[in-house]
Amino acid sequence: MMPHLAIWRPQGRRVRSPFFRVASAAWCLTAAFVFVFSGAVDAEQPASAGLGVASPLDSQRSPSDAPAGPAKSLPSEKQAAPRPSSGCQAFRVREQDQIWLVSTRHLGCPAGGKYEPALQVWRYEKGLWQPATLAEFYATDSADVVTPIYVHGNRIDSGLAASYGLSFYFELVGKLDSEPPARFVIWSWPSDQINGPLRDTHAKAARSDVDANYLGHFLAGMQPDVRVGILGYSLGARIASGAMHLLGGGSLFGESLTPAPRPPVRVVMWSAAEHNHWYLPGQFHGQALAAADAWLNMFNCCDPVLARYRWLDKCDNPVAAGYAGIYGRNLLPPDINARIEEVNVSNIVGRDHNWRPYLYSRYIQDRTRDYLLWHELGIGGLNEAAALTVAN
Fold first, then answer.
1. How far apart are CA 188 and CA 73, in angstroms?
2. Which residues, at least 6 apart from 264, have a Cβ–Cβ distance to it below 8 Å?
3. Residue that wins the pLDDT comparison between 50 and 196
4. CATH number of 99-107+118-391
């Protein structure tokens, strides 16, 4: 009796599912590709090539293993050509430099009291962070050593702040032999991520105003002949602007500085999460611009995060300075306006809110270094423009 066709199977043959057949074919093709590719690599490159050392088998080879032919032959030009050196440099700290980390993560809101806790300070020495004091930091003040300060953005814990800070030091200072001695400072503030994006953003915006007060007092403690450069990214730019507002004689939530000679400062802002109208006279940071020697604002009109900056304050509907530039520059005094340089870097950074495209761009890196390390700003630069404005 013939079985029904729906249940009949040929004898002595296992039927595989379509999925199994496809997986088997893919495995066979992968194995064949690996075999061919590895064979091609082995044919083009010796086992020890690129390692800079000879294979252990090479040292055991006897003279009789040498190929037949002349005992010695002159190497061809291709063979004699040296291998190109790698373009990447290993991290280092130059002997003439110092790296410090100043933290406010343990501090609450400033109370202005006599027994307010001090800033926590560490110094990077021989690959380790060694505890230090604020007095030890100020003891290294020197007119011959420039002091760049890096202020990170939001959602950075203490470990990342130190790690990223070292990257900023190396890219802007440490990898270059020609730069003058630098005392690099990493400003670490409590920006660890908290639950809820809007809750997180509002909390960090409020905390950045608190840290502006701490940074302002920190700068005021330096000798007036120390040259300072501040690099603030995102909310770090808001901290830097608030600190400069205090140095310029302004106040934040009732806190101000005693009038005294202050160190000269240059400020660089990357993707600044700051109201772009706050720099106008009478506004929240209205005395910041006059307190700095020069300002560099690198903004990105394609930044997807700063495009929604208005959600930070629905009543004010603000626009970020890192998204559209500083508002109302035509309303500023001419000598103040001449201190500002603004560059739209959207063609470099693109649709991203990230510090890496800024740091690893050759143009952004070089121009930032001009400000932080107090290079000449070039013919027709801000110093000459400000001088001509004042003279007229």
1. 62
2. 227, 228, 293
3. 196
4. 3.40.50
Measured between alpha carbons, how far is 271 from 269 in angstroms, rounded to an integer? 6
Q: How many beta carbons lie within 10 A of that of residue 125, not counting itself?
A: 12
To the question of pTM greater than 0.85 for the whole model, the response is no
Query: Average of pLDDT values for 215-225?
Result: 97
Are 102 and 185 contacting, i.e. CB atoms less than 8 angstroms apart?
yes
Among left, alpha and beta (phi > 0; psi -120 to 50; other), residue 234 is: left
Sign of the alpha-carbon torsion through 255, 221, 123, 372: positive
* The predicted structure's pLDDT at residue 115: 53
Place of tokens 């004898």: 11
Among the ranges given (56-60, 148-152, 279-283), the one the predictor scored with the smallest mean pLDDT:
56-60
Distances from the Cα of 327 to the Cα of 115, 203, 285, angstroms = 40, 25, 13
Residue type for 298, please?
Answer: M
Q: How far apart are the first and last CA of the chain?
A: 114
The residue ranking higher by pLDDT, 145 or 2, is 145
> Distance between CA 277 and CA 211 in Å, rounded?
20
Residue that wins the pLDDT comparison between 339 and 16: 339
| Mean pLDDT within 68-78 | 38
In this structure, the chain runs to a length of 392
d(CA 312, CA 47): 59
Name the token pair of 40: 């091609």
Residue 351 pLDDT greater than 60, yes or no: yes
Smallest Cα–Cα separation from 303: which of 284, 283, 319? Answer: 319
Alpha helices in the chain (DSSP H): 18-44, 56-60, 77-80, 134-138, 158-169, 197-220, 235-247, 321-324, 334-337, 346-349, 356-359, 362-372, 382-391
Three-class secondary structure of residue 152 per DSSP: coil
Assigned token pair, 17: 């599912």
Decide if 319 contacts 341 (C-beta within 8 A): no
For residue 88, the tally of other CB atoms under 10 A from its CB is 6
The Cα–Cα gap between 233 and 292 comes to 17
Question: 61: alpha, beta or left, given left = phi > 0 and alpha = psi -120 to 50?
Answer: beta
